[in-house]
Amino acid sequence: MKQKTLFITFLAAAVIAIGCDKEKTTTQQIEAVKTETKQAAQDMKDYTFAQKEEFVKFMSGQLTTLNADLDKLSAKIESSSDALKAEAKPKFQALREQATKLNQQLAEAQNATESTWDSVKAGTKSAYEATAKGFNDARQWVSDKIAP
Fold it and tell me: Which domain holds residue 128?
C-alpha cells in the first residue's frame, strides 16, 4: 500500500511538472513518461497473490490514466486537419483495442487463483507495457505531426 501511494504521488507530481514545464521539449516530456512507465512496470513485479486486490486497483488506475491521456491526444487530433484525422484513426483504434485487452487482463487478474496468479500477473504486466508503449508511440507521432 505504501508503494502504491508513493508511486501515485510521484506520478501525479511528474504529470504536473511535465504539464507545467513549457521549457521542456516534447521529446523530453516523452522521455519522462517512458521513465515513469518503466517505474510502474518495476513496481508491478513485486505483487504476490495476497496483494491481488491491490495489484488490480493499481493497474486499474494505470489504465484510467492511459485512457485519460489518450482522450487528450484524441482531442488534439480532432482539432487538426481531416487528412491527419484519417491517418490517426487506425492508430488510435489500435490503442483503444490494447486498452480493452488490458481491461480483460485485469478481469482475469481479479479472478485469478493462487495457482494461476503468476501467469495472469505476467499477462497483465505484458498488456500494460504494450499499451503504454503504444501510447508513448502515439504521443510521439502526434507531437511530430502537430506543432506544439
Answer: 2-145
Check: CB of residue 63 under 8 Å from CB of residue 102: yes
Question: Is residue 12 within 8 Å of residue 62, measured between CB atoms?
Answer: no
CB atoms within 10 A of CB 41: 15
Cα–Cα distances in angstroms (integers) from residue 68 to residues 3, 52, 61, 99, in the given order: 23, 24, 11, 11
How far apart (Å, rounded) are the C-alpha atoms in residues 87 and 90?
A: 7
Nearest to 27 by CA among 143, 145, 147, 146: 143
Cα distances (Å, whole numbers) of residue 132 to 38, 58, 117? 9, 14, 22
The structural domain count of the chain equals: 1
Residue with cell 488510435: 92
- CATH of residue 126's domain is 1.20.120
Q: Tens place of pLDDT for every residue, the chain, 148 residues?
A: 445 444 444 444 444 444 544 455 666 666 666 666 666 655 555 678 888 889 899 989 998 998 898 888 888 888 888 888 888 888 888 888 988 888 999 999 999 998 999 999 999 988 899 888 998 888 888 888 776 5
